């Protein structure tokens, strides 16, 4: 089977969050299963782009509304990622440094999708399945079915994978002329509450829809940023497939980012060595339990609660602990997190930035990873933490509830709480500190965590089964 993934992100070419990790690893594992999986994404101006060699495989042009655009499809020459990676270059539109956050993101991603469709109609062979990821590729199923120019693509199976339903790519109807000429009787396939909604359109038009955990799929029926009724209505074609992690990137035994490699054979010593280096670097006492938070500083991750919760935990806990935060996002939260240094100097450190290497070092050196998320479609951080023997402290939501079992339950290996509020976060931190100081089970639990198999192997096959369940 040949599968083409269409995505805004793909690690290591461009990464903002978990979408990149998934699109950078799932195709590799699908190839290992004997299929041919490829990725096409926008040509962001990243260090990976500059560090690698590319060949031009297609050039074309189209008119979006009344804007004439030329595009080029380039392919990474050496198959560095274990799958063919194609990038779409549209001068001035896609070749920017940041992945998202521009006022014209709606138009940029529409232009990206039209370029992909234009390329596909000219391509001399067809993939069996197009797997589109999130709203950035959400208009492709509609265009393949209802844009006249792409009629001969209409028998390609389409699957929408939802990594995050908060962002839907809303566009005013004034922009409907940007979509290549389409059957106006089908306007209802684009509309949701008076706007063009690319995510809603993909839910309607794709053959199958999946989220990145089963728990998140269930939650979308009740909370989907306005699309609840749509998910309820379309539930017959919706399912959840838990993300895996890329064992070739996230492996404490071989990880070149971490300071000292380790495995289950020397987990306690290995972690201690990494913790020491991390604590030395940030001036923290290595004897104390070390908590970390890594992530986008946005409301979904409950990052707004972190400053107050961390301060309250420092004040209320009778036993001392350390906390390191790595993240960026909301400037108000960034500022408040930086202020904590003043009061808790020597126990707290924050790095307000995106830093892939440091994130690996933190997963390797920490004792506990805090994830108080309000919404968590799957969550990869807790899976990386488990692999590196760091205990997840998580709110029971979405994929976190699917992947972490509380130490109070049978076979448990994490700390779980119910509410994204200060009180629950503080008491969970205290519970973790108590475990660290007064129990001799941490070392055994660490081995248990590290041995849990969260690799892509199983889920990659479930995707293939999903594609196979579509008949055309
Ligand atoms: P989301 O996709 O919602 O951001 P996930 O848990 O699915 O959340 O994936 C987050 C990914 O992004 C993980 O690989 C995590 O390590 C990484 N990440 C997030 N913020 C940072 C940061 N500031 N520096 C380095 N890595 C980060």
Q: Domains counted in the coordinates: how many? A: 2
- Sum up the overall morphology in one term: globular
Largest sheet: spatial strand order:
3-4-5-2-1-6-7-10-11
CATH architecture of the largest domain: 3-Layer(aba) Sandwich
- Decide which structural class fits the backbone: alpha/beta
Bound ligand species: adenosine-5'-diphosphate
Give the number of helices: 17
CATH first level of the largest domain: Alpha Beta
What is the CATH homologous superfamily assignment of the largest domain? Glycogen Phosphorylase B
Portion of residues in beta strands equals 15-25%
Give the termini distance in whole angstroms.
14 Å
Return the average pLDDT rounded to an integer: 97
**Oligomer type:** single chain
């Amino acid at each position: 089977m040949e599968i083409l993934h269409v995505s805004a992100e793909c690690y290591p070419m461009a990464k903002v969050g978990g979408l990149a990790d998934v699109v950078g690893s799932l195709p590799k594992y699908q190839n290992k299963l004997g299929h041919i999986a490829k990725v096409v994404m926008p040509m962001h101006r990243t260090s990976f782009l500059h560090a690698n060699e590319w060949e031009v495989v297609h050039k074309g042009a189209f008119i979006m509304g009344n804007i004439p655009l030329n595009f080029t499809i380039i392919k990474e020459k050496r198959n560095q990622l274990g799958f063919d990676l194609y990038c779409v270059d549209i001068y001035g539109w896609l070749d920017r440094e940041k992945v998202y956050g521009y006022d014209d993101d709606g138009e940029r991603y529409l232009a990206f999708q039209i370029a992909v469709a234009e390329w596909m109609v000219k391509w001399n062979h067809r993939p069996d399945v197009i797997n589109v990821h999130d709203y950035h590729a959400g208009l492709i199923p509609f265009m393949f079915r209802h844009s006249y120019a792409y009629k001969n693509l209409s028998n390609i199976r389409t699957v929408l994978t939802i990594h995050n339903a908060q962002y839907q790519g809303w566009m005013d109807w004034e922009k409907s002329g940007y979509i290549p000429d389409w059957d106006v009787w089908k306007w209802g396939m684009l509309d949701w509450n008076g706007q063009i909604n690319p995510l809603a359109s993909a839910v309607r038009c794709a053959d199958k829809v999946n989220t990145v955990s089963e728990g998140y799929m269930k939650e979308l029926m009740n909370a989907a940023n306005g699309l609840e009724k749509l998910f309820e209505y379309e539930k017959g074609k919706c399912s959840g497939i838990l993300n895996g992690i890329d064992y070739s990137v996230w492996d404490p035994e071989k990880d070149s980012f971490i300071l000292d490699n380790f495995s289950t054979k020397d987990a306690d010593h290995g972690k201690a060595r990494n913790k020491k280096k991390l604590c030395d670097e940030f001036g923290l006492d290595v004897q104390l339990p070390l908590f970390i938070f890594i992530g986008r500083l946005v409301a979904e991750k409950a990052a707004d609660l972190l400053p107050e919760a961390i301060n309250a935990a420092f004040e209320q806990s009778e036993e001392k602990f350390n906390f390191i935060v790595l993240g960026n996002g909301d400037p108000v939260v960034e500022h408040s997190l930086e202020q904590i240094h003043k009061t808790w100097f020597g126990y707290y450190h924050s790095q307000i930035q995106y830093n892939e290497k440091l994130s690996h070092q933190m997963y390797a050196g920490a004792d506990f990873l805090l994830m108080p998320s309000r919404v968590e479609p799957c969550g990869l951080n807790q899976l990386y933490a488990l692999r590196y023997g760091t205990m997840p402290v998580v709110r029971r939501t979405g994929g976190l509830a699917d992947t972490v079992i509380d130490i109070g339950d049978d076979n448990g290996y994490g700390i779980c709480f119910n509410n994204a509020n200060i009180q629950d976060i503080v008491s969970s931190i205290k519970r973790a500190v108590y475990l660290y100081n007064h129990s001799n089970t941490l070392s055994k639990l660490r081995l248990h965590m590290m041995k849990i198999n969260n690799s892509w192997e199983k889920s990659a096959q479930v995707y293939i089964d999903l594609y196979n369940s579509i008949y055309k």
